[in-house]
Amino acid sequence: MYRKLRWVVADKAKLDDLLQTLTSLNDGLFHVLPTSPGPVCQAKSQVSTLKLSFDIPFLLDVRKSSEFVGREYLIESLKQNVEEGKHTQNIIVLYGTGGMGKTQLALEYIHQYYGDYTSVFWINAASDQTTILGFTQVMQRLIQHHAELCEDYSHIGRLLGMAGKLDSNGCFEVTQPSEEQYVVDAVKRWFASLENTNWLLVFDNLDDLDSVDIEEYIPACNHGTVIITSRRRDLQQGRRGFEVQQMQSIEAIQLLLMACAMPKFEDLVLSDQTTASTIVQELGYLPLALDQAGAYIHMSQYSLGRYLKAYQSNASYLLSKGWKGGKQGRSVFATWEISFKAIQETNPEAAKLLLICGFLNNEDISEELLKRGLNLEPQDLEDAIRTLLSYSLAKRSSNDDSFSIHPLVHSWAKLRLESEPQKEIDIAREAFEVVVSGVDKSDEGRTEDWIFERRVMLHIDAITKHMAQYAEVSNMNMQDGSRSLGDVYERHGRLHEALSWYRWALAAYEKALGVDHPSTLTTAYNMASVYDNQGQYEKALEWYWRALTGQEKALGVDHPYTLTTVNNMAVVFDKQGQYEKALEWYGRALAGEEKALGVDHPDTLTTVHNMALVFDNQGQYEKALEWYGRALAGEEKVLGVDHPDTLITVNNMAGVFYNQGRYEKALEWYGRALAGHEKALGVDHPDTLITVNNMAGVFSNQGQYEKALEWYGRALAGREKVLGVDHPDTLSTVNNMALVFDNQGQYEKALEWYGRTLAGEEKVLGVDHPQTQDTIRCLISLHEKTGQTEQAQILRMRLHVPKR
Known about the structure:
Blueprint: H1 12-18, H2 72-84, E1 90-95, H3 102-113, E2 119-124, H4 128-149, H5 153-159, H6 177-192, E3 199-204, E4 225-230, E5 240-243, H7 249-259, H8 270-282, H9 287-300, H10 304-320, H11 326-346, H12 348-357, E6 365-366, H13 367-373, H14 378-390, E7 395-396, E8 402-404, H15 407-415, H16 421-440, H17 447-455, H18 457-467, H19 479-491, H20 495-512, H21 518-534, H22 537-554, H23 560-576, H24 579-596, H25 602-618, H26 621-638, H27 644-659, H28 663-680, H29 686-701, H30 705-722, H31 728-744, H32 747-764, H33 770-785, H34 789-796
Parallel strand pairs: 1-4, 1-5, 2-3, 3-4
Antiparallel strand pairs: 6-8, 7-8
Helix pairs in contact: 2-3, 4-6, 7-8, 7-9, 9-11, 10-11, 11-12, 12-14, 12-16, 13-16, 16-18, 16-19, 19-20, 20-21, 21-22, 22-23, 23-24, 24-25, 25-26, 25-27, 26-27, 27-28, 27-29, 28-29, 29-30, 30-31, 31-32, 32-33, 33-34
């Protein structure tokens, strides 16, 4: 149910006067405005002396192969390329065919020369999501390192550009795309620091250039070294290209013999030497194929000759199936076919697990997800994973609670099913059920489950991409799971993806259960909620109406679900400014709730509160107070005087007194709300800080400017700590402080604080946002007031011409 906490802007009359001064043109100025020197932490009695650190102890989350052999000439050439580009930012692209060993080459270089760098970081750039995850892991490393020097996480957050984002344990959550970008930008700024000149950053597996715009992730500076591994030759343009080609014959033989734990080449009998030479030639000197072949020979105790016959048989099989990719592609696929058939015979569950993983993301395949989603005993799952590891078809992650699969193995696992369409659909469905079962056991109210959902989001994205390839998901009896994934995406702010799954679920429910089944109607309601969150109010009303029509028919007009839909339609009308219609629909919800639930039920009281909000928005203050009073009496009786819902009503009543100009009464009620918020929620809770901000607004309107600045300062310190320096609520407080300085005639300070507001709003909201445009207008007015007409004219270029 909808409940809104009201907050006020200081000196509304003056703000209205300022907003009268607009004219218009278009975009322009970029760096004329002064900005704040940074966040002011007023909550601390001591200032930490910790400074940014750039010497980060060496630690890689990617394991280097113990069987790396030869290729010294490539390592030496790579080292030479790095040295030649040291006078500026050096971007080196290791490109070549899949399976050539680009990743292992980069890892070997790092392990030989990591001492030359102050920090080394590795990011999996296979997709946009894995790249963002990599940046969050870099930030976690930076936080951990600084915490070893000083455990003041508030100060560490400010140093690393994460002010207000870290909790008392130094942890942070990323819940929205804008917050993902916030972390990426903070990490890039750390790399770009002028004192931080000698770092190495690797972007591995950058093959999907449609998904990943690498320029958005490379730090903007003239120092540091970037190494990119990719199959894409075109990435070398404008950078230092470095092609990784096939291994030399003797190196390839050494790798094969090492992988299968056989004696050195010179210690083999002549026939085995000849066979080994033939095998590496057949495998195209590909390191990945040689590693797979060696692992199979070792596990199966085959002789070299017997393996060569098995390989040639499977290569012929692949050719007969019309598999493309040239000799190199077929050679490496043939090695996997041999291993796969052996696994099918000895551990069918392991073979099936590999195929299922082909529909997940190839990185960070969480054992917890598999435990939740697979119908296997824990020991059987562990045996299956161990089997894949033993055949080199999977690699254990450094944290030991997940594993990864090489991108080519991952592609092959799915590709081999294309000749068996029904089996492909069956495996895809099992992968879907693994993901759904994994997140179905999450409780959206628990932080640890939300974090787990976030971790497995890469696999949810992968299954979403794969299932979209099938013509009719609705024919696959997956409606419950589809709605569950829609719920996960909606919880994490991924509204477009949420709509896709809800549409699939709706089609399946309609087909299987009918248009008026409660599950169908709940899905229609969910779609309306997404449209509402997107600001598409007409579409939201359309889908709420569809849900409501069915609910009235199937459940009755007074069913709680029906009344919730009625209430939410009223919310949309309120957002649209259709206040009379909002009151009509709230009245309808209220009549039903009083009848079905009682006058003092929390849902009933929420509707009473929301009706008061509408009267407040209309300027009908006496009516608003009457309805707030009715809500408050019920809330105090049912919920208690310090319940958060009760305190929201107290705060909003104070807002009505403020709007009426009854400032002493407003302060009295804000004081009551504040005492309750601090007791129930704590001094830094966002709801508490809204009340603090509102009290400052009252002092400002009373002309008590110093007191207003004191209370705005308190609100600002709390919001910077809890919400961050660029959160819209934080910026509103900054803007209000600018208004106070303006009222005091401290125009330079007002310009400084307006400038800080504008910088944050442009970053977070964009130049086109109404709030940003309002700040520009305030700055124009102030510049004109102080005779700075040229600056005012430049700012006018950033306003938009009203459409006629």
